Every structure is written in C-alpha cells, then in structure tokens.
Amino acid sequence: MGASQSDARDVATCLNLIPDSYTFIPVDLGNCCAHLFHRLEPDGFIMSQQSSQGVSRRGFLKGSGAAVAVSTVVSSTEAEAAAPGLQVVSGETSITLKVNGKSMTAKVEPRTTLLDVLRYQFDLTGAKPVSLGGSSGASTVLIGGKAVMASTTLALAVAGKEVTTCESLGGDAVPAAFVEHDAQQCGFCTPGFVVAVRAFLNKYPNATEEQIRAGLNGNICRCGTYANILQAVVSLVKGNSNG
Amino acid sequence: MAEVTYNWPENHKARLIGKRVSRLDGMEKSTGAAKYTYDINLPKQLVVRALGCPHAHCRVISVDASATEKVPGVVLVHLIKAPKPGDEPVEIRADGTLLVAVAAETEAIAAEGVSKLKVKYELLESFVADHDLQAAEAKKRTKKAGGGIELDEAIGEPGDDDDEEEWEEQKVQQLFAQSKYVVEGNYGIDTITHCCLEPHGSTLHWDGDRLKVNHSTQNVSRTDDGYADALKISADEVDVHCEYIGGGFGSKFKPDYWGIAAAEIAKQTGRPIKFLLTRDQELKIGGNRPSGFIDVKLGADENGVVQVWDSHHWGTSGFNGSTVSVGNFPYVFRPKNWRRRATGIITDNEPSVAWRAPNHPQACAITQTAYDDLAAKMQADSLDIFLRNLENIDSPEKSLVYAEQLRIGADLIDWRKHWHLHGKGKRRGSVVEGLGIGIHKWGGTANSSNCLLKIHPDGGVESYCGTQDLGTGTRTICAMVLAETLGLPIEAVKVNIGSSTYPFSGASGGSTTVGAVSESHRRAAQEVLAQLFDLVAKRLEVPAEKLEASNGNISVVGYSDKSMSWKQACSLIGIQPLEVTSIYKRGDDSPLSSSNVAGCQMARVAVDTDTGVVKIIKMVAVQDMGLVMNRKTAESQIYGALIMSIAAALFEQRINDPKTGAFINSELDSYRLPRLGDTGELVVHFHEPENERARGVIGLGEPPAISGGAAIANAVCNATGVRVPTLPLTPKRVLDALRTAKG
C-alpha cells in the first residue's frame, strides 16, 4: 500500500542531482547586479524572494568596485553618509538608456528593474515577466551584446548602456528561422528565446547540435517548442532556413 | 442558389490544406509585437498585486492595512478572501489563496503595499499526503469516488441467496487462481501545475457601464458570462478580448475570482486595472492536475493476455476531494473481467482544473505500467504483450489501428535492435538503457462555431469568429480554410478572432478547436462562393456548377479562357458586401469533421544507476488525426506534447511540506521543467492510412499528450529491471527503487 513518497526532501534531491545537460551557459546575470546585491544585503535592502522588486526604493549604492557607470543625480548628503568610495542614489531619478539605438529617458527608483522600464515606460513588452528571479529567461535582452535578464537587472545599473530588445530584431535571421521552423506556440517565451539564440550564435556561430543542446538551457518553454527551436538554430548555423 | 454540399477538396487539388504553412502571427510573436493581456498598458492604469495566503489551512481573523495605505502610490486596498472588521473569520483551504489586493501606481509599489499588510491567522491542521491512503482514512480525508465490476458472461450471475459482494469476491479470486501469471503492483503520478508562462489575469476597464476586459482566456466567447454573473450585470455589457494567450492547457476558461476583483477595483477607483498573478501564485492557484495512485492486481493467461483486473486508486484534486475518473481503468485495455474502485482524498490544496486530456495521462501512466510489469514478470517482450492484449480493448474496432501504429513505432525506434528483457541490457559503466511503450485514445469532436464572412465589392475578404489561438495555430487554420476555398493566396484573407463581440465559437478545450473553426470557416466560405458563382455564372452565361475558384480567378472548369479575376467577380456583388454567417453546432453530423483517434508513443532512455538520473535518448509518437490541416503546426503540437510528457515523467511535481501543507516549490527554480537539452531525439509520425483523410478534421491537442509518461516509466523499468512506481521519476526515486530492489 502507498506509492512512493513525495516529501519535502525531494526538493533538495532534485536540485542537487541535476543532469549535466541542465546548465545555464549563455545567459549571464546583469554584470553588476549580483555584486551590488551583496553590498546591499547587510543593510537589509533586499526584500524577500516572494517580492518581485528585489531592492528598496530607498537607496542604490554606487561604488568604484562595482564597475558601474551611472550618470544621474546623487544626493550629496547620502553619498557622504555612505562608506568611503560608495555613493547612494535615492528617490526617483531620471536616467537615459540607449534602447534599440534610440536614446530614451526613464524615471526610476533604485528598485526599478530594467524590465519594468521597458514594459511600463517604453511599452516594449517583448521581454516578459515570467519568473522574476530569472530562471525562465523570458526577459532576456542584450546589454552591450551580452544576454542579460531584464527582470534581475536594475535600471540604474544600465543607465547609459546599449540595450537591445527583441523588438529590434525584425530584420534578423533568428525570428525568420523561428517562423520557418514553427519554433513557437503560445509565444510567450519566444522573444526571450529569440534574443538568447541571437547572443548564443554571436558567440558560437558554428555551434554543433550538441553545443546547441547544451547552450540554450537558460530559457523555459512550457508549450514544448524545444524541438523546433533546435531545428531553427541548426538551420541558422548551416546558413539556410528551409522548413 | 443550389444547396451547398459541404466537403473538403481532394488531396491532389488542395493548395494549403494538409501542407506545411507557417503560422501567420509567427513574426509578431518572435519580435514582441504580439500583445498579450499582460502586455496591454491602458492609460492611467493601476497595477494590482495580492497577498497570497501563506498557510495551507487556516482562518483569516483580521487584516490591518494601515501601513499599506500609507505607502505613497497605493490607491486602494481591496479585501478578496478576508473578513471586514467585525466579520467572522474566513477559512482558507489552500496555500496561495488570494486574501487582499493592493492597487497601486506601479507593480513595485503594489508589491511593497502587499508586503506591509498585517494579517492575523489562526492555523488549522492541514493534510496533504495524497499518496498515503491509510493516513487519509485515519484523518477522515477520503471520499468514495465510484467504481464497479464487470465479469465475463460465462461466469454467470449471483444466485438469489448469494451476498453479491461476497460472490463477486469469490469469482475474482477464482479468476486469479486460474491465471498463469499474476502481477501485483502500486503506481502513482504526482500533481502537476499548469504553470502557464503568462499568468492568469486580466487588464480591464469600465467604459461607463460597459466592462471591457482583456483576459488571458481559452474561452473568449463565454468568459463574459462569468464576469456578468459575478458582477450582476448582463453578458451584453461585457466585452472580452484575447488576441494572444500565453498558455492555458485547460486552466483558463473562467474570469476567476481575481478577475472579478479586478473589475470591482476598477469600478471603485474609476481607473483601468492590470491584475495578473505572480509566478508563485500562478503555480499555487492558477491550475493543477490531480494526482493518482493505485494498487493493482492483474491475472493473465499463458500468452500474457490479461483476463482479470482488480484495482483501487486514489488521489487528490485538492480540497474538493476528487480523484482521476475511474471510467478509464485500465487505460485503453479492457479485460473481460474487471473490478475497480476509486477514492478521492481531501487535501488542503487549490482544486484541480482541466489539464490537457483530463484524466487520461494519469490513467495511462498508472495502469499501462502494470501491463509492462506483466511483460517483465513473464520475461517477455513488452511490445508482444501490448500487441497480444489488443484483443481486449475498450474500442475493439481500433485494435488493428493500434497494431499498425505499434508496428510503425517499433520500426522508428529500432525496437528489435535495442530490445532486451527487463534489466538484462548491456551496462556501460553505471548507465543502462531501456525501451517502453504507451498507447492512448481521444475523442476530439469539433466544438460549436459560427463564422461571419464578408466579401467586399473590391475583393477584400474578412472573417470574424469568437475563437482563440492558444498557440496551436488556430488563426492560421482559419485563414488556410478560407483561402483554400476561395482560391486566394493566404495573405488575401483577413482573419479576426479573439473577441466576444464576434460570432460565438466554443472554448478551446478537449481538442475541439481545429474541428470547430474548420467547420465554420469552410461552411461560410463554401456558401459565399456559391452566391458569387451564381453572379459570375449569369455574367459568363455558364451553369454555376461548372465554376471553380483557383489562383485568384473564378473560371469555367476546363475552359481557362472563360474566367474572371476574383476582383472582377466581386465587383458583381453590388455596393454592399456579401455576408454569410455559418453556424455549426457540436454534434451535428458533418462530412467535414469526426472524432476518435488512437496513438502510440515509445521511449528509449538511459538511466545512470549511480546518480538516478534518467535521460531521454529518443521518443517516437505515432498519431492518427483524420484530415491533417496544417502539417507544420500539427507536427509542433505533437513535439510539444512529447516534451510535456517528458516534463511530467521526469521533472515536474507539486511538493507540499508534509507538516505545514505549504506548496514549497512554487517558483521556476524549484518547480522543475525540462530545458532544451533535456529532450533527446523526438520523432513524429502522422499515421495516415488510405481512408484517414475521408474522416475529416479531428482535434489533436490532447491525444499526443497522454501516453508518453507510461512509455518513459516503462522504459526506465526495462533499463533497470526495477519499477520506479511514481512519476516524476526523480533521481531520488530512481535510487530509492534501486536500493529497495537490492534489499
């Protein structure tokens, strides 16, 4: 009597024993965010995992060690109060982003994510809010040519940087190959996948099928279009996209 | 006008139907131009976030929203399932249940507002051990969920003096005593969640007394009723729109209580509202598929043909305490003698909703595994055992279809080359390989559907139909049918779907949509064309029945010089557009569509016996579907179904904390889904014997999503020689089963 248990220990097990194909190669975290999160943590600025916005509206620390270039108004009193070499940005401020080749201005708080700015201020809704912790890859955009999750990237951290979203890839070969190979069903994950594939192919233009299978595991599709995406990417490497 | 005979073009004449046609909205989806409910930003909208109950079973005593109300940008705090001051506590039966909504200027502010709510709870004992029947009985958490018995006529009937149950028990035991092989086993499959990538919800506003809703729904034509009922207005005062939906899988048919809350908040604030669930809430309350666990005993004759089946299964559909429907046990197979019983288990979880092929994947995974264990016990070839048992199936007229499909599947997966007896394969280090099978069935009857087709005097063609495209390619099929019928290029027709203001079309559930829209669009196009032919016939002075529409012309069959361009023909219409509304009612006898498919899937897997990790080497799906409409998107449906089967067989499961009842893996980093590298080689074969096309259109969404789990589970058993009883076959479970078998 009684089939095998589905107990809490399974979580630990399934996380520890991850098959080796289960990797997250191509999609990097925002290059500065992870670093900044560590610096912020002692001040309790990080909210719980359940919250979508990981950083308080109060402050955003800038430090020379964090390799961030933010051209924004900084409150001098808060900057002075912070540790040497660090500056604090607080409250709402205006930043300029270069999105798809255009300079665009956004009003952001320290906690505002790049995804929020794209979707709510620029109405660029291709990048999707699927898993704000970044494990779905649905909010993938390119920053300086690198694939980054907009949902885990703070807007302040990318001020002045070049952001490329799927909306600018209309003339690119990747969406065309996705259409040709029907690499989409409901389509909600598709823009993120398209950008991830673009970044992957930029880095590995001659990828083998094995490399493709290993290198595009940062994105989730629920409808199950992986077989079609694989076909699309193989065809892009081969330089033809005949369905 | 002569009466129109509805039909499909012959295969050699079809230009689009049955061919590989790229979906029309592919570029919009790939470049972010497709606007989903979540993407629609209305001027002055507020964004709503809600507090999900952190406990599986509790009473909500009171809510203190004073800190929330002080957050700049918070506009309204709205109680959903929580008491007003002075009211009785509200009992909550599922982790994640939405208690209080906060409407604010931005998502971040709404989330901050939610984090500042102070709620008092009284914790109540929870129960979530759906696999443990004895524990459920001890806690009085069970409900009878049906059952029955059928014995071969030759066995006779109980006498007047016999106690019926005792007599039945005696006969069942006699049948087991006569059996050459008896297999006893227990099997299971955990609850999984729909996990739509676009969470459930809506972006809506009031236009005076009229509610205009963008709703992520599989049921565009009928979601207005749900809003109207709850808001005490009439359905004609609600418009529902859904051009694109980010996944549904059976979970998005209703406004849901948070949709109603959104409408109420919009009314109170006088502003448009965007209210979609968070990822955590989507997994907890956005929809789940019930679990199933079973104790089985079967008896077979010397050929491995099952003669008697005796099972008791249980599982949970959440706090309403139902389980997988007993009618399908054992799945597809139906021995001459069977007894089956079902028990529902009441757990503190959100009630389940329909999931792609409701009941079938679970029934398949926990009964066809027993048939495979018979092969293991006999040290026989599983393929032979499946083939031999086709003499006793619930649709005997399908046995030859299954036999043929199993033969094709075996060829495609190289069964004879790779087969070995259970547990007797070659070992490469710690890795063993194995093969497994599952077979399935589905109806797929066309749903009701109406279509308004307009032909403009300038040749323009537009259609209106209140259907929806879940990603199956419905929009493209509507256009294909119209363009094929009218002899036009596909770009020449403008298809409009996704609005409740269009003619009614049924919900997309149960593989009913491709049939529905094929019926309504073909009928409308054939009727419009007949009217146009009458006009052209008069002008060309030929009989209308001699006309055909092809290549953008209407011409006399066999006389290409006697023709008119489409545009010229349409100029004969006059000044008003030609309009036809076709009406197809589900169940109407029609030559255009039918139902009932079979199908088989086979899996070849590798199992690392040191780590317990299972990898798919190859999967094969053989599927009949009547007349294939769009070969490209039909293939995608089957690929997707195979991948979903891999997901449920190896990765996904709802995990409740046994003590608190909490759903503890409700984020995508811990609710595991397969990734691109996890799928192995997938092969799709359309089974199209000579008479298949004449069956007309049959729905395809569900059938290929059924038997993959059984095939994978059986392949793992074949590889290791050990049955891992419960899906998903996580590394821990594989290792546990291997250790138990070693003793």
Question: What do you see in this structure?
Answer:
The complex is a heterodimer of chains A (243) and B (743). Chain A has 243 residues and is an alpha+beta fold. Chain A has a domain at 168-238: [2Fe-2S]-binding domain (DNA polymerase, domain 1), CATH 1.10.150. Chain A is 30% helix and 14% strand. In chain A, the strands form two sheets. A five-stranded mixed beta sheet of chain A has the order 4-3-7-5-6, sandwiched between helices. In chain A, strands 1-2 form a two-stranded antiparallel sheet. In chain A, a hairpin with a 2-residue loop joins strand 5 and strand 6 (146-149). Chain A starts with 8 loop residues before the first helix and ends in a 5-residue tail after the last helix. Chain B has 743 residues and is an alpha+beta fold. Chain B has three domains: 37-124 and 200-276, Alpha-Beta Complex (Aldehyde Oxidoreductase, domain 3); 354-444 and 595-742, Aldehyde oxidase/xanthine dehydrogenase, molybdopterin binding domain (Aldehyde Oxidoreductase, domain 4, 2-Layer Sandwich); 449-584, Aldehyde Oxidoreductase, domain 4. Helix content of chain B is 28%, strand content 25%. Chain B has 18 helices and 30 strands. In chain B, a hairpin with a 5-residue loop joins strand 20 and strand 21 (461-465). The longest helix of chain B has 28 residues, at 513-540. The N and C termini of chain B lie far apart (80 Å). The relative contact order of chain B is 0.13. Chains A and B meet through helix 1, helix 4, helix 5, helix 6 and helix 7 of A and helix 1, helix 3, strand 8, strand 15 and helix 16 of B.
| Name of the level-1 CATH class of the domain at 168-238 in chain A | Mainly Alpha
Largest sheet of chain A: 5 strands, mixed
- Which CATH architecture of the domain at 168-238 in chain A? Orthogonal Bundle
CATH class of the largest domain in chain B: Alpha Beta
Encode the helix/strand succession of chain A as letters: HHEHEEEHEEEHHHH
3D shape of chain A: elongated
Strand content of chain A: 5-15%
Q: Helix/strand/pairing class of chain A, anyone?
A: alpha+beta
Instruction: Classify the beta-strand content of chain B into a percent band.
Output: 15-25%
CATH fold annotation of the largest domain in chain B = Aldehyde Oxidoreductase, domain 4
- Find the count of extended strands of chain B (DSSP E, 2+ residues): 30
